[in-house]
Every structure is written in structure tokens, then in C-alpha cells.
Write a structure and sequence with these properties.
The chain has 151 residues and is an alpha+beta fold. The protein is 40% helix and 19% strand. Strands 2-3-1-4 form a four-stranded antiparallel beta sheet. It is globular and about 45 Å long. The two termini are 13 Å apart. It binds 2'-deoxyadenosine-5'-diphosphate and magnesium ion (MG). Belongs to the NDK family. One of its GO terms (molecular function) is ATP binding. It comes from Nelumbo nucifera.
Amino acid sequence: EEVEETYIMIKPDGVQRGLVGEIISRFERKGFKLTGLKLFQCPKELAEEHYKDLKTKPFFPKLIEYITSGPVVCMAWEGVGVVASARKLIGATNPLQAEPGTIRGDLAVQTGRNVVHGSDSPENGKREIDLWFKEGELCQWVHVQAPWLRE
Ligand code: DAT
Ligand code: MG
């Protein structure tokens, strides 16, 4: 049981569709701690670096176009098991296969417009937070709920 960090990002469709509050709420209510938050228009180079593992995929150019098509909401969340838990809250990559109750299962219909990103490992959580946030943009603070979340 280790404290982890994950990078969560509301993609341009989530912002345009007015889902920012709804999506942030789900992580807040679960009991994770927000340590970074900003609205950001992402340059192409950053999107390409973020998704570098998918560079050879046929959908890569459209993915980069999508991610850079409008502002995104960048977030860093901290907590025990937050990486895997956030992936569960988000749901499967294809929203039509995502379970009801998940963000994608409830709020999206297509892989190419799946409203939110979540890191897939603690290592990538660190890498992505480093990539998207500058020094001084993250806050360390005492989560007063902590003793009511874990015994
Ligand atoms: P996830 O976002 O669930 O971690 P991923 O890392 O495999 O999924 O892919 C990153 C994003 O790329 C995904 O959210 C949407 C897009 N993508 C993945 N597979 C795709 C496909 N077959 N067609 C179109 N877009 C795809
Ligand atoms: Mg991924």
C-alpha cells in the first residue's frame, strides 16, 4: 500500500461538453488528493511526447489533432493505489465497452472522443506529471480528510 501519483487529463471534448466539474468531482468524492490543476492549450510537441508510445499507430495524427484542438484540464492526483483506481473510475478505452458507472461508460460513446486520460502505471504517472507541470505548479498540502478515509 503505497502513496502514488497519477496524471489525469480532461481532453478537449470533456471541456467543450461542460464535463469538467463532473469529472473532477468523481476523483474528489472517491477520496484522492488533488496536487495540481490547470486549464491548458497543449502544443503539438507536448502531445506527441505524451503519446510517444503510440507514434507508429495509424490513428496517431488524429489523436494529436484531437488533443491539441482546444484546452485540456491537467491534473495531478495523489493517494494509495490511485493509479489503478483512477483507471477503474475512467473505464475502458472504448467508451462503448466501458462499464456504466465509469466516466467513459457514463459520458462518452467513441474511442476517439473518450473525454479523459489517466496514467497506466506509477512510473508513467511520475513521467506525465513531470511532462505537463512546471516546477511550482504543484501543491503539497495536508488532506484533512485523511484520517476519515483510512483507518
Ligand atoms: P487509454 O487512454 O485508455 O490509456 P491508450 O493508451 O491505449 O488508451 O490510447 C491512448 C488514446 O489513443 C486513447 O485514449 C484514444 C486513442 N486510441 C487508442 N486506440 C485507438 C484506436 N484504435 N482508434 C482511435 N483512437 C485510439
Ligand atoms: Mg494510455
